Every structure is written in C-alpha cells, then in structure tokens.
Amino acid sequence: MVRRPFEIIGANKRAYVAISTMAYGLVAVGFLVGIMFPELSRAQAQTQQTDGTADLITSLLSNPWLLAVVIFAVNIGRLSALTIVLPSLVVPFLGLPLFAYWSFMTGVTIAPTTDMAWVALIPHSLTVVIELQAYILLLLGVYLLGRSSMWPRSADAITHRRGYLSGLQMLGWLALPALVLLVIGALYESFSLLYLVHPLSLWLL
Predict the structure, then answer these.
(1) Does residue 38 lie within any of the structural domains?
(2) Does 7 fall in a domain?
(3) How far apart are CA 191 and CA 63, in angstroms?
(4) What distance in Å separates the CA atoms of residue 101 and residue 22, rounded to the nearest whole number?
(5) How confident is the model at residue 167 (pLDDT cuts 50, 70, 90)?
(6) Per residue in 131-163, pLDDT tens?
C-alpha cells in the first residue's frame, strides 16, 4: 500500500517531472511578475481582504489547531477537489490548465511588497513547497486518468471505460500521499504563522 504511489510515480517519471516543472515554474514566474509589478500583488492582497480570507486567518491565529483545520479544508475543497480533481473527472486534463492559472496567481499573491511580507515569506516558502508537492501528485493522477480514458492501451485496458477506471484507481493511490502532505502543510502553516513569523520580524526588522 505504501509503495504503490511511488511505483506509479516511478513508472511515469517524465510526466511527473514535467508537471512539477510547470507548477513550480509558474509560481516562480508569478512571483517575479508580482515583484516587478507590486500593484498586482497588492490587488491580490486586497481581494483577500474583501472576501474575508485575511480576517478569518487573523481571527484564528490564537488557535493554531483550528486554523490548521480551516487551511486543510480550503486546500482539500477549493484547490484539490474543485480546481484539480472534479473538473478532470468530467473533462480530461481540465484540472491542469485550471491549476496552472492558480499557480501563476499564487506566485503574484505571495510576492512581498513590504518588509514584513519578506520576513513572512521565509517560513511560508516551505508551506508553498509542501502544498505544491501535494497538488503535483493530484495533477499527475488526473493526467493519468485523462490519458488512460482517452488512450486505454496506455493503461493496458481494452475499452475506454476500463481505461477510465484504471486511471481513477491510480488517481486514488496518488491522493493518499497528497492527503498526508496537505495535513503536514496545514499544520506547519498554522503553527509557523503563530510561532515563527512574529519572532522573525522582531529579530530581522
């Protein structure tokens, strides 16, 4: 059970590397765009203020466990399910371009525009790496789902239906380590906001 996700990754190394490059690359490009055009980063921050995201995070800072639950729920619901998995169950590969857009905009959003934001980025960069890795596993899963449903022979299947089911099974296997990474990422992000960002700001600013 533990080995199966790694076997799937090993059998599809090129796709895994390509998806990883896309995900990290677009975040990096968005980050550079946000640095060069800080008004874009500020606009994204203003959007989070308007939709209540920033206020929600601030209100939960005193309870990192509850904050971790909220972060995990958002990452599972809005990103994993609604952006990556569910669209790809209906339209093959649709989660890939949707996530590509999210990756770019995330890079823009996290681009620091203040000294405090630069300090916060130090611990938050690890959060980005952990969560991106989880999403990359899901992206590989939906890629394999689309490939096996459209080209069943790639999954040693005879019919499109069997190919779809085979791809769905691979997606399920890859979702297991992705889930673990999202739990780790949510816990680290919530506790780092409370116990790392403030001490670092006192030390560096």
Answers:
(1) yes
(2) yes
(3) 9
(4) 11
(5) very high
(6) 999 999 999 999 999 999 999 999 889 999 999
> Does 150 fall in a domain?
yes
pTM above 0.90, yes or no: yes
Range of the domain at 167: 3-192
Q: Which residue has the higher pLDDT, 65 or 44?
A: 65
φ, ψ for residue 114, nearest 5 deg: -135, 165
Question: CB–CB of 84/146 below 8 Å?
Answer: no
Number of domains in the chain: 1
In eight-state DSSP terms, residue 93 is T
The first and second tokens of residue 131, run together, are 């969560």
* Residue 137 resides in a domain: yes
User: Which residue type, as a one-letter code, is found at position 181?
Assistant: L
The Cα–Cα gap between 183 and 46 comes to: 27
The answer, yes or no, to whether residue 53 has pLDDT greater than 70, is no
Angle at CA of residue 100, ends 182 and 78, nearest 5° = 45
Of 125, 127, 135, whose CA–CA distance to 184 is shortest?
A: 127
